[in-house]
Design goal:
By secondary structure, the chain is mainly beta. The chain folds into 2 domains: 38 residues; 252 residues, Alpha-Beta Complex (Fumarylacetoacetate hydrolase, domain 2), CATH 3.90.850. It is built from 6 helices and 20 strands. Strand 1 and strand 2 form a beta hairpin. It is globular, with a radius of gyration of 19 Å.
């Protein structure tokens, strides 16, 4: 496996490869990993994410998978990097993390069979599909503002080639406490299937990102929290939550805390259905905080 990163080196975006704890540019310049200023590892023309895919997430939402994957789009302006700040606007309460593995397309891809798809994949990176659920009642199900607001798609730290996604663990921690944990063996649709499915009608271009789903345990985070997604063989993606300015109130839908918003942010339609409180890591904290 080879890990490729993009960093800011002498003020210029520079591709480097990782050698242990050192990043090496093609001209021989070397930078310690801990001192590097990271940029996103790719420059996608589009970012597409699958809705439900991990078995634990389906069970958490007390639902069933559809017959085939469904997707949503994150604007490229949502792209963020390793160590980048993730902004929760003032007046919003429900900014949720979702640790994921992202597929990076390597060659122009259209109308291929699943058996061919892996040859079109350049490699993989880590992503955090943050969602601002305060806007979940708007946009008629497209989740444009929920998932597409600026800074809500950190990716990195690098693009890893020749990595086998099968039977790999993934975990997300908040302030060093594990909040999500899963394995790619839980996925209903694997990486090759997702690529082939999308490429039937959408031409995928080099650098495009496909986010492959998240395990159970997504919960809201607060300014000051440090969120890390770690994937076996891909490394660690770390971001800090910061407070942003308020959303303008003189135009558009405003943040809300409807039952749909709260139930999704806290792990499923627990309040709408009256079945159970949220469960999983941190659930007691979030329920007591909501009731306070």
């Amino acid at each position: 496996m080879i890990e490729h990163r993009t960093i800011l080196l002498d003020g210029v975006a520079t591709e480097v490869t990782r050698e242990g704890e050192t990043l090496v540019a093609s001209d021989g310049r070397r930078v310690p990993v801990a001192e590097a200023v990271h940029l996103p590892p790719v420059n996608p023309s589009k970012i597409i994410a699958v809705h439900l895919n991990y078995r634990s997430r389906v069970e958490e939402f007390m639902t069933r998978l559809p017959p085939a994957p469904t997707y949503f789009h994150k604007p490229t302006t949502s792209l963020n990097s390793h160590t980048g700040d993730v902004v929760r606007p003032q007046g919003c309460r429900f900014l949720n993390f979702e640790g994921e593995i992202a597929i990076v397309i390597g060659e122009t891809c259209h109308d291929i069979a699943p058996s061919e798809a892996e040859t079109y994949i350049a490699g993989y990176t880590i992503a955090n599909d943050f969602g601002l659920h305060d806007f979940r009642d708007t946009d008629a199900g497209s989740m444009l503002r929920v998932k597409g607001s600026d800074t809500l798609c950190p990716a990195g730290p690098g693009l890893v080639t020749e990595w086998d996604y099968r039977d790999k663990w993934i975990r997300t921690s908040v302030n060093d406490v594990t909040r999500q944990e899963g394995n790619t063996g839980e996925m209903e649709w694997d990486m090759a299937y997702l690529v082939a499915d999308l490429a039937r009608t959408i031409t995928l271009l080099p650098g495009d990102l496909i986010l492959s789903g998240t395990p159970a345990g997504s919960r809201p985070v607060e300014p000051g929290d440090i969120v890390t997604v770690e994937v076996e063989g891909l490394g660690r993606l770390t971001n800090t939550i910061v407070a942003g300015p308020p959303v303008r109130t003189d135009v558009g839908a405003q943040p809300s805390d409807s039952e749909e918003v709260v139930s999704t942010a806290l792990g499923g339609d627990w309040e709408l259905r009256g079945i159970r409180p949220p469960r999983g890591p941190g659930a007691e904290h979030y329920r007591s905080e909501l009731d306070a």
